[in-house]
């Protein structure tokens, strides 16, 4: 899943390649999340930063803000929509106000195990959920398990 998220970001940045090549300053991505750096999500955010900066050779800088240090849990989505932050790693519940479709993950016993969840998220239907909020200014790049 993480590789998919990195690939999606790299592809998106490659599409705007001509403007990247002409940019004197690196593009800065503010990545806000609400957990500590030593958690799986915190470590994943730091790995994302490392891989993006390595692979894009200084053209993109990722600033990670853990522990709600930039925006708290209740303000992150608003900050994303206002352009004050470019990436988040919230729980799916945060997206329910933008699409009710993510409530599928709240249904008890729908999935037999975490592998079934992963299969659904990689399916065409699961991938469609990521783009279902584009009309509201939000594009999901990948799923990130929460609370595991």
From TrEMBL:
Belongs to the bacterial solute-binding protein 7 family. Keywords: Signal, Transport. InterPro entries: DctP_fam, TRAP_DctP_sf. Pfam families: DctP. This is C4-dicarboxylate ABC transporter. NCBIfam families: TRAP_S1. GO terms for biological process: C4-dicarboxylate transport; transmembrane transport. Gene3D superfamilies: Bacterial extracellular solute-binding protein, family 7 (3.40.190.170). It comes from the Bacteria. The keyword Signal applies. Residues 1-23 form the signal peptide. The keyword Signal applies.
